[in-house]
Design goal:
By secondary structure, this protein is mainly α. The chain has helices at about 5-10, 15-60, 65-80, 90-100, 105-110, 110-125, 135-150, 160-175, 175-190, 195-215, 235-260, 265-275, 275-290, 300-310, 320-335, 340-355, 365-380, 380-395, 400-415, 420-430.
Length: about 450
Amino acid sequence: MTSKHRIFFRRLGFSRLSLEHWVRRATFVIGGLCVGGAAVLMALMADQSQAAFLSVLNVSPYLALIVTPLGFGFCVFLTKRVFPNSQASGIPQVIAARQIDDPKARFALVSLRVAFGKVVVMMIGLLCGASIGREGPTVQVGASIMGAIGRRAPIVYHQGLLIAGAAAGIAAAFNTPLAGIVFAIEELSRSFESKTSGLVLGCIITAGITSLGLLGDYAYFGSTAATLPLGRAWFVVPVCALVGGIAGGLFSRIVVTVLTGSGTHALLRLTRTYPVPFAMVCGLGGASCGMLGHHSSFGTGYAEARGILHGTTSLTLAFAPAKFFSTVLSAISGIPGGIFAPSLAIGAGIGAELHALFQSVPIGALALIGMAAYLAGVVQTPITSFVIVSEMTQDHAMIIPLMVAALIADRVSKLICKGGLYHALSKPFMLEKPARPEHPRNPRVPHE
Protein backbone atom coordinates (compact mmCIF):
# COMPACT_ATOMS: atom_id res chain seq x y z
CA MET A 1 0.00 0.00 0.00
CA THR A 2 1.50 3.34 -1.09
CA SER A 3 1.74 6.52 0.98
CA LYS A 4 -0.96 8.13 -1.20
CA HIS A 5 -3.36 5.31 -0.31
CA ARG A 6 -2.59 5.70 3.40
CA ILE A 7 -3.24 9.46 3.24
CA PHE A 8 -6.53 8.86 1.41
CA PHE A 9 -7.79 6.38 4.00
CA ARG A 10 -6.71 8.61 6.87
CA ARG A 11 -8.81 11.42 5.45
CA LEU A 12 -11.74 9.04 5.52
CA GLY A 13 -11.18 8.56 9.25
CA PHE A 14 -9.10 5.33 9.25
CA SER A 15 -6.08 5.30 11.53
CA ARG A 16 -3.02 3.29 10.51
CA LEU A 17 -3.86 0.49 12.95
CA SER A 18 -7.52 0.28 12.00
CA LEU A 19 -6.61 0.32 8.32
CA GLU A 20 -4.20 -2.60 8.74
CA HIS A 21 -6.84 -4.34 10.83
CA TRP A 22 -9.42 -4.21 8.05
CA VAL A 23 -6.95 -4.96 5.27
CA ARG A 24 -5.85 -8.07 7.16
CA ARG A 25 -9.40 -9.30 7.54
CA ALA A 26 -10.32 -8.48 3.97
CA THR A 27 -7.30 -10.46 2.80
CA PHE A 28 -8.45 -13.58 4.64
CA VAL A 29 -12.06 -13.19 3.46
CA ILE A 30 -11.09 -12.71 -0.19
CA GLY A 31 -8.67 -15.61 0.09
CA GLY A 32 -11.39 -17.82 1.57
CA LEU A 33 -13.69 -17.04 -1.34
CA CYS A 34 -10.96 -17.94 -3.83
CA VAL A 35 -10.00 -21.16 -2.03
CA GLY A 36 -13.63 -22.25 -1.76
CA GLY A 37 -14.19 -21.63 -5.46
CA ALA A 38 -11.00 -23.49 -6.36
CA ALA A 39 -12.02 -26.48 -4.20
CA VAL A 40 -15.43 -26.72 -5.87
CA LEU A 41 -13.85 -26.45 -9.33
CA MET A 42 -11.36 -29.19 -8.48
CA ALA A 43 -14.17 -31.43 -7.22
CA LEU A 44 -16.15 -31.04 -10.44
CA MET A 45 -13.08 -31.59 -12.62
CA ALA A 46 -12.10 -34.68 -10.61
CA ASP A 47 -15.52 -36.24 -11.16
CA GLN A 48 -15.30 -35.59 -14.90
CA SER A 49 -11.79 -37.05 -15.06
CA GLN A 50 -12.84 -40.27 -13.32
CA ALA A 51 -15.90 -40.59 -15.56
CA ALA A 52 -13.69 -40.22 -18.64
CA PHE A 53 -11.37 -43.01 -17.44
CA LEU A 54 -14.31 -45.32 -16.77
CA SER A 55 -15.57 -44.68 -20.29
CA VAL A 56 -12.17 -45.86 -21.57
CA LEU A 57 -12.53 -49.07 -19.54
CA ASN A 58 -15.96 -49.62 -21.07
CA VAL A 59 -14.26 -49.89 -24.46
CA SER A 60 -11.85 -52.51 -23.13
CA PRO A 61 -10.73 -53.12 -19.53
CA TYR A 62 -7.29 -54.12 -20.79
CA LEU A 63 -6.66 -50.56 -21.96
CA ALA A 64 -5.80 -49.77 -18.33
CA LEU A 65 -2.58 -51.77 -18.76
CA ILE A 66 -1.53 -49.21 -21.39
CA VAL A 67 -3.19 -45.96 -20.33
CA THR A 68 -2.29 -46.10 -16.63
CA PRO A 69 1.50 -46.69 -16.94
CA LEU A 70 1.82 -44.08 -19.70
CA GLY A 71 -0.25 -41.62 -17.67
CA PHE A 72 1.86 -42.14 -14.55
CA GLY A 73 5.06 -41.56 -16.52
CA PHE A 74 3.69 -38.42 -18.17
CA CYS A 75 2.53 -37.01 -14.82
CA VAL A 76 5.96 -37.46 -13.23
CA PHE A 77 7.63 -35.97 -16.31
CA LEU A 78 5.48 -32.86 -15.90
CA THR A 79 6.30 -32.55 -12.19
CA LYS A 80 10.02 -32.81 -12.93
CA ARG A 81 10.33 -30.60 -15.99
CA VAL A 82 7.33 -28.25 -16.10
CA PHE A 83 5.77 -27.92 -12.63
CA PRO A 84 8.47 -28.61 -10.00
CA ASN A 85 7.28 -28.98 -6.37
CA SER A 86 3.81 -30.08 -7.51
CA GLN A 87 4.43 -33.79 -6.93
CA ALA A 88 2.63 -36.09 -4.50
CA SER A 89 0.18 -34.94 -1.82
CA GLY A 90 0.98 -31.25 -1.39
CA ILE A 91 0.57 -31.23 2.39
CA PRO A 92 4.31 -31.85 3.03
CA GLN A 93 5.11 -28.83 0.86
CA VAL A 94 2.84 -26.63 2.96
CA ILE A 95 4.36 -27.91 6.21
CA ALA A 96 7.86 -27.25 4.84
CA ALA A 97 6.89 -23.79 3.56
CA ARG A 98 5.76 -22.78 7.03
CA GLN A 99 9.20 -23.58 8.44
CA ILE A 100 11.32 -22.02 5.70
CA ASP A 101 12.46 -18.47 6.47
CA ASP A 102 13.65 -17.56 2.98
CA PRO A 103 10.61 -16.02 1.20
CA LYS A 104 11.78 -17.10 -2.27
CA ALA A 105 12.32 -20.69 -1.17
CA ARG A 106 8.98 -20.68 0.66
CA PHE A 107 6.96 -19.45 -2.30
CA ALA A 108 8.74 -21.89 -4.58
CA LEU A 109 6.68 -24.53 -2.75
CA VAL A 110 3.38 -22.61 -2.61
CA SER A 111 3.04 -20.42 -5.68
CA LEU A 112 0.26 -19.96 -8.21
CA ARG A 113 2.37 -21.74 -10.81
CA VAL A 114 2.69 -24.75 -8.51
CA ALA A 115 -1.06 -24.62 -7.78
CA PHE A 116 -1.93 -24.56 -11.48
CA GLY A 117 0.43 -27.45 -12.18
CA LYS A 118 -0.98 -29.37 -9.22
CA VAL A 119 -4.50 -29.18 -10.58
CA VAL A 120 -3.55 -30.01 -14.17
CA VAL A 121 -1.32 -32.99 -13.36
CA MET A 122 -3.70 -34.34 -10.71
CA MET A 123 -6.52 -34.38 -13.26
CA ILE A 124 -4.28 -36.26 -15.70
CA GLY A 125 -3.58 -38.75 -12.90
CA LEU A 126 -7.29 -39.35 -12.40
CA LEU A 127 -7.74 -39.59 -16.18
CA CYS A 128 -5.34 -42.54 -16.18
CA GLY A 129 -6.87 -44.30 -13.16
CA ALA A 130 -4.50 -43.36 -10.32
CA SER A 131 -5.73 -44.16 -6.80
CA ILE A 132 -5.50 -40.59 -5.52
CA GLY A 133 -7.70 -37.97 -3.90
CA ARG A 134 -8.05 -34.23 -4.43
CA GLU A 135 -7.92 -33.04 -0.81
CA GLY A 136 -4.11 -33.00 -0.47
CA PRO A 137 -3.75 -31.00 -3.69
CA THR A 138 -6.55 -28.70 -2.48
CA VAL A 139 -4.48 -28.00 0.64
CA GLN A 140 -1.47 -26.92 -1.44
CA VAL A 141 -3.66 -24.96 -3.85
CA GLY A 142 -5.34 -23.18 -0.93
CA ALA A 143 -2.01 -22.30 0.66
CA SER A 144 -0.68 -21.10 -2.71
CA ILE A 145 -3.67 -18.83 -3.26
CA MET A 146 -3.38 -17.31 0.21
CA GLY A 147 0.38 -17.01 -0.17
CA ALA A 148 -0.02 -15.12 -3.46
CA ILE A 149 -2.50 -12.75 -1.84
CA GLY A 150 -0.17 -12.27 1.12
CA ARG A 151 2.71 -11.24 -1.11
CA ARG A 152 0.62 -8.26 -2.15
CA ALA A 153 -0.44 -7.47 1.42
CA PRO A 154 2.85 -7.53 3.39
CA ILE A 155 1.24 -6.52 6.68
CA VAL A 156 -0.45 -9.92 6.93
CA TYR A 157 1.27 -12.80 8.72
CA HIS A 158 2.48 -15.16 6.01
CA GLN A 159 2.53 -18.19 8.32
CA GLY A 160 -1.10 -17.61 9.25
CA LEU A 161 -2.00 -17.19 5.60
CA LEU A 162 -0.55 -20.55 4.65
CA ILE A 163 -2.35 -22.30 7.52
CA ALA A 164 -5.61 -20.56 6.66
CA GLY A 165 -5.43 -21.46 2.98
CA ALA A 166 -4.53 -25.07 3.65
CA ALA A 167 -7.22 -25.54 6.31
CA ALA A 168 -9.82 -23.83 4.13
CA GLY A 169 -8.90 -26.26 1.37
CA ILE A 170 -9.72 -29.25 3.58
CA ALA A 171 -12.93 -27.62 4.82
CA ALA A 172 -14.16 -26.81 1.32
CA ALA A 173 -13.05 -30.10 -0.26
CA PHE A 174 -15.13 -32.22 2.14
CA ASN A 175 -17.63 -29.62 3.41
CA THR A 176 -16.18 -30.21 6.89
CA PRO A 177 -15.36 -26.85 8.54
CA LEU A 178 -14.64 -28.36 11.96
CA ALA A 179 -12.20 -30.84 10.42
CA GLY A 180 -10.49 -27.93 8.68
CA ILE A 181 -9.95 -26.19 12.02
CA VAL A 182 -8.71 -29.34 13.74
CA PHE A 183 -6.43 -30.17 10.81
CA ALA A 184 -4.85 -26.72 11.04
CA ILE A 185 -4.11 -27.25 14.73
CA GLU A 186 -3.19 -30.93 14.80
CA GLU A 187 -1.25 -31.39 11.56
CA LEU A 188 -0.22 -28.13 9.94
CA SER A 189 0.92 -26.04 12.89
CA ARG A 190 0.71 -28.29 15.97
CA SER A 191 -0.49 -25.11 17.70
CA PHE A 192 -2.66 -22.07 17.11
CA GLU A 193 -1.22 -18.55 17.30
CA SER A 194 -3.68 -16.29 19.09
CA LYS A 195 -3.00 -13.35 16.79
CA THR A 196 -4.05 -15.29 13.67
CA SER A 197 -6.54 -17.85 14.99
CA GLY A 198 -9.57 -15.64 14.36
CA LEU A 199 -8.40 -14.85 10.86
CA VAL A 200 -7.82 -18.53 10.08
CA LEU A 201 -11.33 -19.36 11.27
CA GLY A 202 -12.72 -16.52 9.16
CA CYS A 203 -11.00 -17.89 6.07
CA ILE A 204 -12.36 -21.39 6.75
CA ILE A 205 -15.87 -20.01 7.24
CA THR A 206 -15.68 -18.01 4.00
CA ALA A 207 -14.43 -21.01 2.03
CA GLY A 208 -17.19 -23.16 3.52
CA ILE A 209 -19.86 -20.60 2.65
CA THR A 210 -18.53 -20.44 -0.91
CA SER A 211 -18.77 -24.23 -1.20
CA LEU A 212 -22.29 -24.20 0.25
CA GLY A 213 -23.35 -21.45 -2.13
CA LEU A 214 -22.09 -23.35 -5.18
CA LEU A 215 -22.95 -26.94 -4.23
CA GLY A 216 -25.59 -26.53 -1.52
CA ASP A 217 -25.68 -28.05 1.96
CA TYR A 218 -24.60 -31.66 1.78
CA ALA A 219 -22.82 -34.39 3.70
CA TYR A 220 -19.83 -35.73 1.76
CA PHE A 221 -20.87 -39.37 2.13
CA GLY A 222 -24.52 -38.63 2.80
CA SER A 223 -26.22 -38.67 6.18
CA THR A 224 -26.18 -41.99 8.02
CA ALA A 225 -28.01 -43.22 11.09
CA ALA A 226 -25.65 -46.06 12.04
CA THR A 227 -25.37 -46.79 15.75
CA LEU A 228 -23.32 -49.09 17.95
CA PRO A 229 -25.25 -49.86 21.17
CA LEU A 230 -23.10 -50.24 24.25
CA GLY A 231 -22.48 -53.91 24.90
CA ARG A 232 -20.89 -56.88 23.19
CA ALA A 233 -20.98 -55.11 19.85
CA TRP A 234 -18.29 -52.76 21.13
CA PHE A 235 -15.77 -55.58 20.90
CA VAL A 236 -15.54 -54.72 17.22
CA VAL A 237 -14.07 -51.28 18.01
CA PRO A 238 -10.63 -52.42 19.25
CA VAL A 239 -10.47 -55.16 16.63
CA CYS A 240 -11.20 -52.75 13.79
CA ALA A 241 -8.87 -50.16 15.32
CA LEU A 242 -6.06 -52.72 15.55
CA VAL A 243 -6.45 -53.77 11.90
CA GLY A 244 -6.75 -50.15 10.74
CA GLY A 245 -3.75 -49.05 12.80
CA ILE A 246 -1.53 -51.87 11.50
CA ALA A 247 -2.58 -51.32 7.88
CA GLY A 248 -2.29 -47.53 8.15
CA GLY A 249 1.10 -47.72 9.85
CA LEU A 250 2.33 -50.15 7.20
CA PHE A 251 1.19 -47.79 4.45
CA SER A 252 3.03 -44.86 6.01
CA ARG A 253 6.15 -46.92 6.64
CA ILE A 254 6.33 -48.02 3.01
CA VAL A 255 5.76 -44.53 1.62
CA VAL A 256 8.22 -42.83 3.99
CA THR A 257 10.86 -45.51 3.41
CA VAL A 258 10.66 -45.27 -0.37
CA LEU A 259 10.33 -41.48 -0.72
CA THR A 260 12.87 -40.44 1.92
CA GLY A 261 15.31 -43.32 1.45
CA SER A 262 15.22 -44.38 5.09
CA GLY A 263 17.13 -47.66 5.01
CA THR A 264 16.75 -48.12 1.22
CA HIS A 265 19.27 -45.77 -0.35
CA ALA A 266 19.53 -47.93 -3.48
CA LEU A 267 15.78 -47.70 -4.06
CA LEU A 268 15.85 -43.94 -3.45
CA ARG A 269 18.61 -43.56 -6.04
CA LEU A 270 16.50 -45.58 -8.46
CA THR A 271 13.49 -43.32 -8.01
CA ARG A 272 15.62 -40.19 -8.40
CA THR A 273 17.71 -41.42 -11.34
CA TYR A 274 14.87 -43.00 -13.32
CA PRO A 275 11.72 -41.27 -12.00
CA VAL A 276 9.63 -41.64 -15.17
CA PRO A 277 10.31 -45.38 -15.75
CA PHE A 278 9.77 -46.00 -12.02
CA ALA A 279 6.41 -44.19 -12.19
CA MET A 280 5.42 -46.26 -15.22
CA VAL A 281 6.18 -49.47 -13.32
CA CYS A 282 4.03 -48.18 -10.46
CA GLY A 283 1.30 -47.40 -12.98
CA LEU A 284 1.44 -50.91 -14.35
CA GLY A 285 1.12 -52.25 -10.81
CA GLY A 286 -1.82 -49.93 -10.16
CA ALA A 287 -3.53 -51.10 -13.34
CA SER A 288 -3.02 -54.72 -12.30
CA CYS A 289 -4.58 -53.99 -8.91
CA GLY A 290 -7.52 -52.41 -10.69
CA MET A 291 -8.00 -55.48 -12.85
CA LEU A 292 -7.90 -57.79 -9.81
CA GLY A 293 -10.31 -55.55 -7.94
CA HIS A 294 -12.79 -55.42 -10.83
CA HIS A 295 -11.92 -51.73 -11.45
CA SER A 296 -12.97 -50.73 -7.93
CA SER A 297 -9.47 -49.59 -6.93
CA PHE A 298 -9.17 -46.89 -9.58
CA GLY A 299 -9.79 -43.24 -8.70
CA THR A 300 -10.62 -41.64 -5.37
CA GLY A 301 -12.74 -44.52 -4.02
CA TYR A 302 -15.59 -42.15 -3.14
CA ALA A 303 -18.35 -44.18 -4.84
CA GLU A 304 -17.15 -47.45 -3.32
CA ALA A 305 -16.89 -46.01 0.21
CA ARG A 306 -20.33 -44.42 -0.05
CA GLY A 307 -21.82 -47.66 -1.36
CA ILE A 308 -20.35 -49.69 1.52
CA LEU A 309 -21.50 -47.13 4.07
CA HIS A 310 -25.11 -47.16 2.87
CA GLY A 311 -25.20 -50.86 2.02
CA THR A 312 -25.91 -50.25 -1.67
CA THR A 313 -22.70 -51.77 -3.04
CA SER A 314 -21.49 -55.34 -2.67
CA LEU A 315 -17.74 -55.41 -3.28
CA THR A 316 -15.49 -58.45 -3.34
CA LEU A 317 -13.05 -59.24 -0.54
CA ALA A 318 -10.28 -58.12 -2.90
CA PHE A 319 -11.39 -54.47 -2.75
CA ALA A 320 -9.54 -53.37 0.40
CA PRO A 321 -6.20 -55.09 -0.47
CA ALA A 322 -6.38 -53.94 -4.10
CA LYS A 323 -7.15 -50.36 -3.07
CA PHE A 324 -4.36 -50.46 -0.46
CA PHE A 325 -1.65 -51.54 -2.90
CA SER A 326 -2.97 -49.30 -5.66
CA THR A 327 -2.79 -46.30 -3.34
CA VAL A 328 0.70 -47.26 -2.17
CA LEU A 329 1.91 -47.42 -5.77
CA SER A 330 0.26 -44.11 -6.63
CA ALA A 331 1.84 -42.46 -3.57
CA ILE A 332 5.40 -43.68 -4.13
CA SER A 333 5.27 -42.90 -7.86
CA GLY A 334 5.32 -39.18 -7.06
CA ILE A 335 2.30 -38.15 -9.13
CA PRO A 336 0.20 -35.33 -7.59
CA GLY A 337 -2.69 -36.61 -5.50
CA GLY A 338 -4.01 -36.88 -1.97
CA ILE A 339 -4.45 -39.93 0.23
CA PHE A 340 -7.42 -38.87 2.38
CA ALA A 341 -10.18 -40.10 0.06
CA PRO A 342 -8.46 -43.38 -0.87
CA SER A 343 -7.72 -43.98 2.83
CA LEU A 344 -11.38 -43.53 3.70
CA ALA A 345 -12.30 -46.03 0.97
CA ILE A 346 -9.74 -48.54 2.28
CA GLY A 347 -11.06 -48.07 5.81
CA ALA A 348 -14.62 -48.67 4.63
CA GLY A 349 -13.39 -51.81 2.86
CA ILE A 350 -11.75 -53.06 6.06
CA GLY A 351 -15.02 -52.54 7.90
CA ALA A 352 -16.93 -54.41 5.20
CA GLU A 353 -14.58 -57.38 5.39
CA LEU A 354 -14.86 -57.51 9.18
CA HIS A 355 -18.63 -57.68 8.77
CA ALA A 356 -18.17 -61.34 7.81
CA LEU A 357 -16.92 -61.94 11.39
CA PHE A 358 -19.31 -59.52 13.14
CA GLN A 359 -22.56 -59.99 11.25
CA SER A 360 -24.63 -58.68 14.15
CA VAL A 361 -23.01 -55.25 13.82
CA PRO A 362 -24.48 -52.99 11.10
CA ILE A 363 -22.13 -52.69 8.14
CA GLY A 364 -22.54 -48.91 8.20
CA ALA A 365 -21.16 -48.72 11.74
CA LEU A 366 -18.26 -51.02 10.82
CA ALA A 367 -17.46 -48.91 7.77
CA LEU A 368 -17.38 -45.71 9.85
CA ILE A 369 -15.10 -47.26 12.46
CA GLY A 370 -12.82 -48.65 9.75
CA MET A 371 -12.61 -45.26 8.04
CA ALA A 372 -11.65 -43.43 11.21
CA ALA A 373 -9.20 -46.14 12.28
CA TYR A 374 -7.36 -46.51 8.99
CA LEU A 375 -7.16 -42.74 8.36
CA ALA A 376 -5.78 -42.22 11.87
CA GLY A 377 -3.27 -45.01 11.23
CA VAL A 378 -2.05 -43.35 8.02
CA VAL A 379 -1.80 -39.70 9.01
CA GLN A 380 -1.50 -40.19 12.81
CA THR A 381 -3.89 -37.34 13.55
CA PRO A 382 -6.63 -39.08 15.57
CA ILE A 383 -8.72 -35.99 16.31
CA THR A 384 -8.84 -34.92 12.67
CA SER A 385 -9.71 -38.48 11.68
CA PHE A 386 -12.78 -38.97 13.84
CA VAL A 387 -13.98 -35.38 13.34
CA ILE A 388 -13.79 -35.58 9.56
CA VAL A 389 -15.58 -38.96 9.42
CA SER A 390 -18.29 -37.71 11.77
CA GLU A 391 -18.82 -34.51 9.78
CA MET A 392 -18.85 -36.34 6.45
CA THR A 393 -21.78 -38.48 7.53
CA GLN A 394 -23.48 -36.25 10.13
CA ASP A 395 -23.67 -39.33 12.35
CA HIS A 396 -23.17 -37.97 15.85
CA ALA A 397 -24.35 -41.18 17.50
CA MET A 398 -21.08 -42.84 16.45
CA ILE A 399 -18.73 -40.14 17.76
CA ILE A 400 -17.56 -42.06 20.86
CA PRO A 401 -16.74 -45.32 19.01
CA LEU A 402 -14.94 -43.26 16.35
CA MET A 403 -12.89 -41.50 19.03
CA VAL A 404 -11.87 -44.78 20.64
CA ALA A 405 -10.99 -46.40 17.31
CA ALA A 406 -8.94 -43.41 16.14
CA LEU A 407 -6.95 -43.20 19.36
CA ILE A 408 -6.15 -46.93 19.41
CA ALA A 409 -5.22 -46.94 15.72
CA ASP A 410 -2.96 -43.93 16.20
CA ARG A 411 -1.01 -45.64 18.98
CA VAL A 412 -0.70 -48.89 17.01
CA SER A 413 0.45 -47.04 13.91
CA LYS A 414 3.19 -45.22 15.83
CA LEU A 415 4.69 -48.61 16.75
CA ILE A 416 5.17 -49.32 13.03
CA CYS A 417 5.98 -45.85 11.68
CA LYS A 418 7.37 -43.33 14.12
CA GLY A 419 6.51 -39.73 13.34
CA GLY A 420 3.71 -38.38 11.17
CA LEU A 421 3.63 -39.24 7.48
CA TYR A 422 3.36 -35.66 6.24
CA HIS A 423 6.03 -34.28 8.56
CA ALA A 424 8.42 -37.04 7.53
CA LEU A 425 7.79 -36.29 3.86
CA SER A 426 8.27 -32.54 4.42
CA LYS A 427 11.90 -32.94 5.53
CA PRO A 428 13.40 -33.30 2.03
CA PHE A 429 11.82 -29.98 1.08
CA MET A 430 13.49 -28.31 4.07
CA LEU A 431 16.86 -30.05 3.77
CA GLU A 432 17.23 -29.39 0.07
CA LYS A 433 16.88 -26.10 -1.76
CA PRO A 434 13.44 -26.26 -3.40
CA ALA A 435 13.31 -26.04 -7.16
CA ARG A 436 12.23 -22.59 -8.26
CA PRO A 437 9.06 -22.49 -10.37
CA GLU A 438 10.56 -19.77 -12.55
CA HIS A 439 13.05 -22.39 -13.85
CA PRO A 440 10.62 -25.08 -15.04
CA ARG A 441 13.27 -27.21 -16.69
CA ASN A 442 15.48 -27.58 -13.66
CA PRO A 443 15.65 -31.38 -13.20
CA ARG A 444 16.73 -31.21 -9.59
CA VAL A 445 13.41 -31.44 -7.78
CA PRO A 446 13.13 -32.87 -4.28
CA HIS A 447 11.26 -36.14 -4.44
CA GLU A 448 8.96 -36.57 -1.50
